[in-house]
Amino acid sequence: MAGMAGRLEPHLQALRRELPGPAVLSVLLALLVVAVTILIWRAVQGRRSSRRAVLLLGLCDAGKTLLFARLLTGKYRDTQTSITDSSAVYRVSSDKSTNVTLIDLPGHESLRLQFLERFKAAARAIVFVVDSVAFQREVKDVAEFLYQVLVDGTVLKNAPALLIACNKQDVTMAKSAKLIQQQLEKELNTLRVTRSAAPTSLDGSATGVPAQLGKKGKDFDFSQLPMKVEFVECSARGSKGEEGDADFEGLEKWLAKVA
Q: What is the pLDDT of residue 44?
C-alpha cells in the first residue's frame, strides 16, 4: 500500500497545484476507493489460488477410491474401505501445466468428519460421490453427511465448487442423477427443519453466525447455496468392466473447469 501511495504522490502534487481544494479531495477519495478495491480483489484471488485441493467425499463403498485411482492412472484396481486419506497431484488432460491435489477421504462414519475437518480449509472444490445403486436405501445417510458438509462454517465461507458424482451408472438398477438430486433436495429440506440452522465447525464448535440452509420460507434446492452445485453421472468401473476404461468424461471436464 505504501509503495502504491509513493507512486501516486507526484500525480497528486500536480493535481493539488491545478485543482481547487474540493476537487482534490474528490480525486483523492476516488483514487483511494480504486486502490482499496484492487487490494481486496488481489487478497480474494490469492486465497482462492492457495486452495488447490479437490476433496473426494462420500459414504463407504460409494466408489471414491476407485475413482481416485482411475483419475490418476486410468487403470482398474481392487479397493478396500479406507481408514486414512490418500492424496496425489492430478494434471488436467487438456493442459498438463494445470493441476490440483486430489484427496480421497475415508467414508466410514467414525472417520469422515474427522478427516474433513483436517482438509476443508484447503478445498478448492468438493466431489461428493454417491452410490447410485444403493442410493434408495442410503438416501438418509447420504443426506445427513451432505448436510453436515453444507452447514459447516468454513465451507459456507469459502464456497468451494461442489459436484455430486452419481457413480456406478454401469449397473442397470442405478438411479439417475435427476432422481438423486430431487430426493437429496427433499431430504435436506427435512433435515434443515429438524436441525439447528447455526453453522458449526466439524469439531462441534459453533461459529456464532446464524445460517439457513437455502432460503427461509422456500423448499430447499441446490441453487440456493453460495457455491455452484452440479450433478454428473459416472462409472469408475466402466461399462466394459475391469478391462475397459472408466466412464467419467463429465467428471474430467468438471475438474478441468475448477482447476
A: 43
Give the span between the Cα atoms of 215 and 218, in whole angstroms. Answer: 6
Apex 49 CA angle, 48 and 51, nearest 5: 70
Mark out the alpha helices in 20-160 (DSSP H runs): 21-50, 64-73, 112-119, 135-150, 153-158
For the chain, the C-alpha Rg in angstroms (whole number) is 23
Q: How many CB atoms lie under 10 A from the CB of residue 146?
A: 22
CA angle 129, 237, 143 (to 5 degrees): 20
Strand ranges for the chain from DSSP E: 53-58, 86-91, 99-104, 123-131, 161-167, 229-233
- Cell numbers linked to 110: 467414525
Stated pTM of the model: 0.77
Residues 128 and 165: beta-carbon distance below 8 Å: yes
Over residues 200-212, mean pLDDT: 54
β-bridge mates for residue 91, sequence order = 99
Tell me what the mean pLDDT of segment 56-75 comes to.
Answer: 95
